[in-house]
Amino acid sequence: MPGKMVVIFGATNILWTVFVASQAFKIETTPESRLLAQIGDSVSLTCSTTGCESPSFSWRTQIDSPLNGKLRNEGTKSILTMDPVHFENEHSYLCTAMCGSRKLEKEIQVEIYSFPKDPEIHLSGPLEAGKPITVKCLVPDVYPFDRLEMDLLKGNHLMKNQEFLDDVDRKSLEIKSLEVTFTPVIEDIGEVLVCRARLNIYEMDSVPKERETTKVMQVYISPKNTVISVNPSTRLQEGGSVTMMCSSEGLPAPEIFWSKKLDNGNLQLLSGNATLTLIAMRMEDSGIYVCEGVNLIGKDRKEVELIVQEKPFSVEISPGPQIAAQIGGSVVLTCGVMGCESPSFSWRTQIDSPLSGKVRSEGTESTLTLSPVGVENEHSYLCTVTCGRKKLEKGIQVALYSFPRDPEIELSGPLVDGNPITVSCKVPHVYPLDRLEIELLKGETVLKKKDFLEGVDKKYLEIESLEMTFIPTTEDTGNVLVCQARLQIDEMDFEPKQRQSTQTLYVNVVPKDIQLTAFPSESVKEGETVIISCTCGNVPETWIILKKKAETGDTVLKSIDGMYTIRKAQLEDAGVYECESKSKSGSQLRSLTLDVKGRENNKDYFSPELLMLYCTSSLIIPAIGMIIYFARKANMKGSYSLVDAQKSKV
């Protein structure tokens, strides 16, 4: 009995221990159930247990998508870190803890948002009174859109409110904006534009739910009511002075600019002050002066015309309003005054470049000597004469030219009938190029004409040329090539304005129509005589060279008047014979092949002709012998009888 009590008591202790242990195993999460995280931040979810010395942990999302985080287990803790937080982390995360056979699970809801910056206010342009302007209020990188609400106010007046409920399903960082167009007035100066944005996430107090930006309105007024005052008058004498004042209304206050209207309508800026004073006025200072009031919004202008009247003295400049000067030569410009006893002189160029000359003034005359004249002297020179407070200016244009030599005709080679030849007509050291014209003629016929208008900006001496390619014929012999060059400067008085060169043509002829023949034939028999003849019919002065071609080298044959005779042709005389007909203009070749046939066998010695000749000679020679024999007999006897001769023979 006591043994049974011990067993019952032990079993009871074990059951009580298991019960107590099961009651102590718990799971907790930090944060407890929900986390609101800023996109781009780093956040951690912590899962911890009590009542278990060595728990095991696992994490998953409610929809079993990737965790998109980094997991770290430390004893009774498990930490899931998301760095940086992004859209893929917006889930319900489940932490599962195992302690032996016991299992516990807890959920944390992660929600994300983005509301990092204050709104921005943008204007479509400067605020100008009376002109519509568009104001844009924008919130950058915001999420979730369906919780966003925006207000645009002018002072305390709500101009527009906007929500973005239609974007509830889109997951992205976007710039959301609100626009209002209104017309500013002067009374708006100093008013404040307010752009206010709210992210309505009421359940979380730690989030900045509202941001705003303000902009103080500065309203502008374009310049207007521009006024000019002139003292002493708009009509002035040479040497006098004038002061002009200008004012203009606007907000901000306009800047004042003075300009002079040029002959081409453009404006030449003179001053950036409200007051413009002109002293020592000259006649060329006459004209229309423009005052402009300018601010950020616009401009307004007013014009006034000044007339500067001439004083009664005169200036003359010689040799005249224009002079033509040869480059490398010397020119003297003289400035004289009438009506002033003690004038003072000054010289300048139209563009205020260096004079590059020597000035000498004496009494009522001043001279400017340019020597030697170069391209740097091609200017309009102005002589300014001051007489007391009076000034006069007279100009003279120095125009330069260079046309020192006749053109040069060059041929690319000798003139040969039928061969293209290039003729070049060169004009050396010519200026100005844009006035040059070159013409190439053959007799009275113009072959080519060229001008050089593209050389208008070239300020140096050049050799210009015209080239022409043509095919000469024998009919051109005796014709004359003419190269004419003209410098088309009619307004300049110099000589000569035209130069030319000529060249008489002599057209050479290249040998042709060569005939190379073998007489009696190009195929002969061994032992026969062959005459090889070469003739050229079109050129009187030619050299004819006959050669026999061979691999070891050509053999020049001794021909007479183009003929070469082979007596008793041998087999080694067979081969290629070449005739070269040469003249001063060129050469031409012809060739033929001579075939010499040898005796093939003894049958050739007993051909029908030879056999007939042999038979005939066999009959004739005995007959001649008999005649001689009987003639001698007749001489002995004093007579001759054929019958007796026959009898005695028998």
UniProtKB/TrEMBL annotation:
The chain crosses the membrane at residues 611-631. Cell adhesion glycoprotein predominantly expressed on the surface of endothelial cells that plays an important role in immune surveillance and inflammation. Acts as a major regulator of leukocyte adhesion to the endothelium through interaction with different types of integrins. During inflammatory responses, binds ligands on the surface of activated endothelial cells to initiate the activation of calcium channels and the plasma membrane-associated small GTPase RAC1 leading to leukocyte transendothelial migration. One of its GO terms (cellular component) is extracellular region. Residues 25-111, 223-309, 312-399, 511-595 form the Ig-like domain. Keywords: Cell adhesion, Cell membrane, Disulfide bond, Glycoprotein, Immunoglobulin domain, Membrane, Repeat, Secreted, Signal, Transmembrane, Transmembrane helix, Ubl conjugation. It comes from Carlito syrichta (Philippine tarsier). It is a single-pass type I membrane protein. This is Vascular cell adhesion protein 1. GO terms for molecular function: integrin binding. GO terms for biological process: cell-cell adhesion. It is found in: Cell membrane; Secreted. Residues 1-24 form the signal peptide. It holds the Pfam family I-set.
